Amino acid sequence: MDRTSQLTACAPERGTAYDPPAPSGRPGLPGLPGLSGPAEASLRARAARVLAANWTGSSTVPSRSLYPHQWSWDSAFVAVGLRHLSPLRAQTELETLLAAQWGDGRVPHIVFNPSVPLDAYFPSPDFWRSSTAGRAAGAPRTVQTSGIVQPPVHALAVWLVHRADPVLSRARGFLARAYPRLAAWHRYLLHRRDLGGGGLASVVHPWEQGMDNSPCWDLPLSRIPPAPDGSFRRADLGHGAAEDRPTDLDYGRYVRLAADYRDAGYADGGGDFAVEDPAFNALLIASERALARIAEELGAPGTARRARAARLTAALVERLWEPASGMFLCRDLRGGGLLPERGVSGLVPLLLPELPGDVVGALVRTLRGPHFGLGRSTALVPSYDLLGEAFDPHRYWRGPAWFNTSWLLERGLRTHGEREPADALRAAVPALAGASGFAEYVDPYTGEACGATGFSWTAALALDLLHARRGPTVSRTATGAFDTSDKGGDRR
């Protein structure tokens, strides 16, 4: 997401004090507060308040002060947690996003709120010009969006939201309306974005992959001429220190890529940046498997989609697995070859149940080894190699730990029977979410809050893992009220 333009310093918003967790007995590993009894109930209530405060009536903003629109993969993660409070609101969250889908099938990474002033966020709707520049690609006329995409976690989210209250879902026709849109979204990625010809989807901008300024992008970005000085404004520098932000040179390259894509009518295949990313494709495969379950729920066969997921998994291993690194790497389609940087993206394929056993074993060793330190020096998974030259514990996706990637890896570890590290993440995500004021991301060593606080997906995913720890608690009501007194739902 292009939130590199909107960061705050590594401290909570609104001047609130932050007391980092006391260190545990293991060097560098932040101590985790207990979550039993009243403490857990308080954390659930605080997380619910974050989601209520960021709710607009039809969707949830990531942060009221910094990100005042709807983001694509944010909404998917928010819906996963929101389903435990209100299945109706969770369904509405996803329906609002999918309603902004383009005619070619793409789901845009931002849906703009027309009531928000243009200068509140950059790049703003007047930069993207979706309704005019995107006309040939079928951009909607009635809502302004960006023209790029984000990781396709949506079908997985739709399936989990359905499972939270199947009765309500069937009564509203939730799956029947979502399925054709999700199928079109996957067709777009599998056909329009197979730029390498090997079956995998490519991203055409770092913002599409969601991990904006990851060191994985440094080499392919170095070939992009930056936009001229003065041709764009950096809203991010009003929120924190410049040394915690992308450089002006890098930001100029982000703007150049986006502007070139826009000026080409958002046509795919001709740009100077095209990368096959492990996490993006792993989420596509996981969502393809979820689409199979949705199809079967609707009375259609899911066999073809499961077979496609298996083929995509094989392609992922063939094209992006690097045994010497013990993880998946990004493939630069314009420069040729695998990019050597170890980012958390290369661990996310643990989500996939059909990975070969030797690949799973190597990924778990890498996750728990010195490069990511899970359970030894870190409680959440850092976004980048702890031993990498570009590592910075406070600089956005160049080292800090993010709650969504740890949530994904908790699911992946559990998928492959790695119960001990999965249980540790299941405890750490909600504990550090609460201790950090539901921060956007945290220092992987200390748990120090970075970016925005009161961040929606942090609160939502903490709720989901709290739910998993204690069992179903969501109300089966069609009212949409935040009622947690009854039972329903699961994490399948």
Automatic annotation (TrEMBL):
One of the GO biological process terms: oligosaccharide metabolic process
Residues covered by region (Disordered): 1-37
Top-rank taxon, per record: Bacteria
Bias (Low complexity) ranges: 25-37
Gene3D superfamilies assigned: 1.50.10.10
MF (Gene Ontology): Glc3Man9GlcNAc2 oligosaccharide glucosidase activity
InterPro entries membership: 6-hairpin_glycosidase_sf, 6hp_glycosidase-like_sf, Glycoside_hydrolase_63, MGH1-like_GH
Keywords: Glycosidase, Hydrolase
All copies of domain Mannosylglycerate hydrolase MGH1-like glycoside hydrolase, residue ranges: 67-458
Keyword Manganese in annotation: no
Family membership: Belongs to the glycosyl hydrolase 63 family.
Protein name: Mannosylglycerate hydrolase MGH1-like glycoside hydrolase domain-containing protein
Protein's organism: Streptomyces collinus (strain DSM 40733 / Tue 365)
Lineage, highest ranks first: Bacteria, Bacillati, Actinomycetota, Actinomycetes, Kitasatosporales
